[in-house]
């Protein structure tokens, strides 16, 4: 069953995440680059690593040592973490240049901290969408939109999440679900774009919006996702894919983000029926070229 939706101007999120390498000045530079590339939204990440990780996870070496910023995975994550005051400063800077700040939250403490300065929306990563204690905080104590990815999540688990937000009548007004495949990067065959159709058929009348969070290479699949109805497109963003770190390889560089924004804008302008059977631009050619015999 096809779901009837209206195309809206696409919303593009440049997910800076931890691609700032733990340096605040680089985070500011990436915000500037995202704006110059045409994006209106940027997103970071917030973790309380002692709460999020088991002691074993915290003390284990990073699985890819050349990407690590510490002797252990926990030390690596701590090095990349901004504190609450730094996140407030990022939000203030975004607002000063007409950008929208947001962040993913990975645990209850981080959710409460980020709620405290009222961002427009907060994101739940695929890895944490089964943390119902955190979801309860976002559902019951946050007034903004809750964006949630469903990578590595079963359909039964998605239903449980949506039903949880429906308990307080917040799914339809505040919950955005991203079609997503968790991998870095994801080959095209695993992106599974028709999951967007399933989301519309199953949840189009139950959640606020549906989007697409991509971890693939290039921008072609994002345009396809938009034509299928994804109203938000989220992509990791970096200045240089060769920088040290985990996410850079599956991120867009500034020229790619600019190309994506332009491609989505052109798609938005084109996605409508003809206003007339013969458009004015065609009439000139019709008068000149149309067969008259």
- pLDDT averaged residue by residue: 96
CATH class designation: Alpha Beta
Based on secondary structure, the structural category is: alpha/beta
Oligomer: single chain
CATH topology: TIM Barrel
Percent strand:
15-25%
Helix and strand sequence: EHEHHHHEHEHEHHEHHEHEHH
Q: Which architecture does the CATH hierarchy give at level 2?
A: Alpha-Beta Barrel
* Uncertain segments: none
Number of strands: 8
Rg to the nearest angstrom? 21 Å
**What number of structural domains do the residues give?**
1
Strand order of the largest sheet: 1-2-3-4-5-6-7-8
Q: Output the number of helix runs.
A: 14
CATH superfamily: Aldolase class I
Description:
Helix content is 42%, strand content 15%. The model has no long low-confidence stretch (mean pLDDT 96). Helix 1 (24-36) packs parallel to helix 5 (84-96), helix 6 (108-115) runs parallel beside helix 7 (132-141) and helix 12 runs parallel beside helix 13 (254-270). It has an eight-stranded parallel barrel with strand order 1-2-3-4-5-6-7-8, surrounded by six helices. With 293 residues, the chain is an alpha/beta fold. It contains 14 helices and eight strands. The radius of gyration is 21 Å and the shape is globular. The chain has one domain (11-289): TIM Barrel. It has helices at 24-36, 49-52, 55-59, 73-79, 84-96, 108-115, 132-141, 155-166, 171-174, 188-191, 195-203, 220-227, 254-270, 280-289, and strands spanning 11-17, 41-46, 100-105, 121-124, 145-149, 175-180, 209-214, 232-236.
């Amino acid at each position: 069953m096809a779901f009837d939706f209206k195309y809206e101007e696409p919303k593009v999120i440049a997910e800076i995440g931890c691609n700032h390498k733990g340096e605040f000045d680089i985070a500011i530079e990436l915000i500037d680059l995202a704006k110059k590339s045409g994006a209106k939204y940027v997103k970071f990440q917030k973790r309380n690593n002692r709460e999020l990780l088991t002691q074993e996870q915290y003390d284990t070496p990073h699985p890819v040592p050349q990407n690590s910023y510490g002797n252990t995975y926990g030390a690596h994550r701590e090095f990349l973490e901004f504190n609450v005051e730094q996140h407030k400063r990022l939000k203030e800077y975004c607002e000063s240049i007409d950008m929208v700040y947001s962040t993913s939250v990975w645990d209850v403490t981080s959710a409460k901290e980020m709620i405290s300065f009222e961002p427009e929306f907060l994101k739940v990563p695929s890895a944490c969408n089964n943390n119902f204690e955190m979801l309860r905080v976002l559902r019951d104590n946050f007034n903004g939109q809750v964006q949630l990815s469903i990578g590595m999540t079963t359909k039964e688990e998605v239903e449980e999440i949506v039903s949880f937000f429906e308990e307080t009548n917040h799914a339809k007004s505040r919950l955005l679900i991203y079609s997503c495949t968790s991998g870095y990067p994801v080959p095209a065959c695993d992106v599974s774009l028709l999951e967007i159709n399933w989301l519309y058929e199953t949840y189009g009348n139950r959640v606020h919006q549906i989007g697409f969070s991509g971890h693939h290479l290039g921008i072609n699949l994002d345009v396809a996702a938009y034509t299928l109805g994804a109203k938000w497109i989220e992509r990791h963003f970096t200045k240089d894919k060769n920088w040290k770190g985990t996410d850079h390889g599956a991120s867009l560089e500034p020229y790619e983000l600019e190309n994506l924004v332009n491609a989505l804008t052109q798609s938005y302008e084109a996605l409508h029926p003809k206003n007339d059977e013969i458009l004015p631009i065609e009439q000139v050619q019709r008068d000149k070229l149309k067969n008259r015999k």
